[in-house]
Write a structure and sequence with these properties.
- About 70% of the residues lie in helices and about 5% in strands.
- With about 160 residues, it is mainly alpha-helical.
- It has a two-stranded antiparallel sheet with strand order 1-2.
- Strand 1 (about 135) and strand 2 form a beta hairpin.
- Keywords: Bacterial flagellum biogenesis, Cell projection, Cilium, Flagellum.
- It holds the Pfam family FlgN.
Length: about 160
């Protein structure tokens, strides 16, 4: 039977790599580097999948040892095992997870800010300055729409 602490080194390695990718992601978001972001996305998704699989293995080992098959079962297992090295590894893993969650929160804010900026730019491109919302551009660049005509009659 696998012990619940068996996955901790691999989980630590993956979460550490994820934190580094999220820091790079933050730099790409600030620089609005879409190509860099696209390259990171696949690597990030792979790490998240691997972390989920390792957590499932740990949860299964906790259940097999008679503890709650979730994160909540880890503390009681650590208390029963009396293993200081495992407790230190678990504490380090929790700290890295907290860092990843904070990076994810900040990166989400940066993404939302960039999306709002992009929407503002798109709106500006769709509506010429000082023109009503209904004005559109035709294929040859001429404007048309439901706005009243401003033709002057000279005579």
């Amino acid at each position: 039977m696998t012990r619940p602490n068996a996955t901790l080194p691999a989980e630590h390695e993956r979460i550490e790599a994820l934190v580094e990718l999220m820091k790079q992601e933050q730099q790409f978001l600030v620089a609005a580097d879409a190509d860099g972001l696209a390259e990171l996305t696949t690597r990030k998704a792979t790490l998240v999948q691997e972390l989920a699989q390792l957590a499932r293995q740990r949860h299964g080992a906790l259940g097999g040892a008679g503890f709650v098959s979730s994160e909540a079962g880890m503390e009681p297992w650590l208390a029963a095992a009396g293993d200081d090295a495992s407790r230190a590894a678990w504490t380090a893993l929790l700290a890295l997870t907290a860092e990843a969650k904070e990076l994810n929160r900040v990166n989400g804010m940066l993404i939302n800010r960039q999306m709002a900026h992009n929407q503002t730019v798109l709106n500006a491109l769709r509506t010429p300055a000082a023109a009503p919302e209904a004005t559109l551009y035709g294929a040859k660049g001429q404007t048309f729409g439901s706005a009243p005509s401003r033709r002057f009659v000279l005579g």
